[in-house]
């Protein structure tokens, strides 16, 4: 075998060797990822167990998201909202959102706030907030997210290890195809790592800062309160009358734009009906029932004939003569 033949054989084998090398690298990367995920997942939980033993129990490692709701009644809701913001700032928190509605007839003033305060000082902060007005309703909800937090930490640690290994493999890549494959895998891992990191940061923020929702309104009138004397009843009745008349005027004002076109449409329909009445239905002049001719008199009703005894029929003339002759005859 000459040298040219050997050279051609080497050229044919070189692509196959490169392909086998790429497949070997990808297989090793996948095994490293799976092994790193399993080993790192166990490694994340071990420090938590040790920390809990040092602190004296699992309660110290609990991750809890707290959400409170408070409803107050005050004569000046906006001023009370300002005081609530001051309480939250003194506790080390901040204001997420605030909505103020000044008092305008016929609605009363109100305010709505969403405060974020440190979880460690939540109880003391709630006591101060409830004392700002008349407490109408309050609630506190706590959600344990310890397992979710540990799972996120484990997945993030595994992805960070995978990204680090992919970067090392990219620095050692010898072909363009290997580099492209490694960059695609690195982009996928990095995107997943960024999403999990954002979830962990949001969860930690919810654990560190509790959410307090506040609703502040003006005190309402006592339901069912009746006037105490005659003049009080007169005032209540007069006020109700004014309210009724005002409401009726409002209804008429709303209906007026509709009544005018409806009346015009009804008049148009009546005019069209009268215009299209058939000519044969009119009666000619001089006919009975025509407006210029009086109606003919009504014929009298038949009277009842008095009942009389029926007379016997007259005998025939011949029979009468025979009867007279028989009466004049004398017996012999």
UniProtKB/TrEMBL annotation:
Entries under InterPro entries matching the protein: DUF4349
Q: Where is the DUF4349 domain?
A: 62-271
Q: Where is the composition biased (Low complexity)?
A: 306-326
Q: Where exactly are the transmembrane stretches of this chain? A: 244-273
Keyword annotations from UniProtKB, A to Z? Membrane, Transmembrane, Transmembrane helix
| Bias-annotated ranges (Pro residues) | 285-302
Q: Where is this region: Disordered?
A: 36-58, 279-332
- Statement: the UniProt record of this protein carries the keyword Membrane: yes
Give one Pfam family: DUF4349
Superkingdom, taxonomy of origin: Bacteria
Query: How is this protein named in the record?
Result: DUF4349 domain-containing protein
Give the source species: Mycetocola manganoxydans
């Amino acid at each position: 075998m000459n040298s040219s033949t050997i050279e051609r054989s080497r050229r044919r084998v070189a692509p196959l060797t490169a392909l086998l090398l790429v497949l070997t690298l990808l297989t090793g990367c996948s095994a490293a990822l799976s092994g790193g995920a399993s080993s790192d997942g166990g490694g994340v939980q071990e420090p938590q167990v040790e920390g809990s033993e040092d602190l004296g129990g699992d309660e110290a490692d609990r991750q809890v998201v707290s959400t409170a709701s408070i409803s107050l009644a005050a004569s000046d809701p906006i001023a009370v909202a300002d005081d609530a913001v001051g309480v939250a700032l003194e506790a080390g928190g901040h204001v997420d959102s605030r909505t103020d509605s000044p008092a305008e007839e016929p609605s009363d003033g109100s305010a709505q706030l969403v405060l974020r305060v440190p979880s460690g000082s939540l109880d003391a902060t709630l006591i101060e907030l409830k004392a700002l007005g008349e407490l109408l309703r309050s609630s506190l909800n706590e959600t344990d997210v310890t397992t979710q937090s540990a799972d996120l930490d484990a997945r993030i640690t595994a992805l960070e290890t995978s990204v680090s290994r992919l970067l090392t493999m990219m620095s050692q890549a010898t072909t363009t195809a290997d580099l492209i494959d490694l960059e695609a895998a690195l982009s996928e891992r990095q995107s997943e790592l960024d999403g999990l990191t954002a979830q962990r940061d949001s969860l930690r923020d919810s654990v560190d800062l509790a959410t307090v929702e506040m609703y502040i309104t003006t005190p309402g009138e006592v339901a069912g309160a009746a006037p105490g004397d005659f003049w009080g009843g007169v005032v209540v009745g007069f006020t109700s009358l004014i309210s009724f008349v005002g409401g009726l005027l409002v209804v008429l004002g709303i209906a007026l734009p509709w009544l005018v076109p409806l009346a015009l449409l009804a008049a148009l329909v009546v005019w069209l009906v009268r215009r299209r009445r058939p000519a044969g239905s009119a009666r000619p002049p001089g006919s009975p029932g025509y407006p210029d001719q009086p109606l003919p008199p009504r014929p009298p009703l038949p009277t009842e004939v008095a009942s009389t005894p029926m007379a016997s029929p007259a005998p025939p003339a011949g029979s009468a003569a025979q009867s007279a002759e028989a009466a004049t005859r004398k017996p012999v």
